[in-house]
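Model it.
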Amino acid sequence: MNFSLLIENLTNPALLFFFLGIVAKLLKSDLEIPENTSKFISLYLLFSIGFKGGQELSHGILSFEIIVSLLFGLFISIIIPVYTFYILRKKLSIYDSGAIAAAYGSVSAVTFVTASNYLESLMLPLHGHMVAVMALMESPAIIMGLVLISLHNKEIKIKKSSIINHSLTNGSVLLIIGSLIIGYIATTKQAEGIKPFTTDIYKGFLAIFLLDMGLVSGSRLKTFFQFGWFPVLFSIFTPLFNGIAFAYLSQWVTTDVSNRFIFAILAASASYIAVPAAMKINVPKANPSLYLPMALALTFPVNITIGMPIYLYVIQNL
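Modeled.
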């Protein structure tokens, strides 16, 4: 592996702000990001990556590779919840297993944003259709998690209309799809008019958002470790396994390094926004003090520190 690449990733200012947030909580600092500000920044990041992806997509044509990529993304979001659910059931309840399986089958938009920034630092392009792949992967994993819970517990009756409606109207999904479409429709000249907002300030907002993510992660660590070592080990090794496995398998879908890297990141990441919101409504017995810290406090930093260089190494050398 290129260790200089790993060191460069670990010293990335945005990542260091994430660790600053964790340290601030451990030191019981009063540092905080106002909730409304945090929500605005998260919306901005989704808007920015979606719009830029739409612009990139508008410059190409709908090829066979793009169609296969969309289907491959759909496959990832369906298969991961299935095998992770049965691994989790060895130690956890049906409710927690289903919620965690859905989280790991779904995607983290912030991890995707961080990965796109990583590609940019390596002078590798982010292709627009991969934004569409990310948006497509959010909902199927939620549905699969809820279906697995209902299959193994007849007491849980989940309305299909409720599942589909929530997964499609979830704010993050709607914004990323909407921004993608608008970016696709807009001309290059029109896009130039808002470039200072969509591009120039992007990295600064990402750093502040990761600081907020660090604060949230740090506040949940103490409660999380009360569940023992199984969730900890699962949160560390599952994303690495998923990322490496699909980084390797993606060679039969595309030969493009950037696209394969994004597939690895999407497979490795875990949702801590859309899935918790869906589980809170449909499966209130699932414990958010378990699946939220797993996705946010462990899997997220594992992916953006050692995960990304490992996935890139696998793609370039295996």
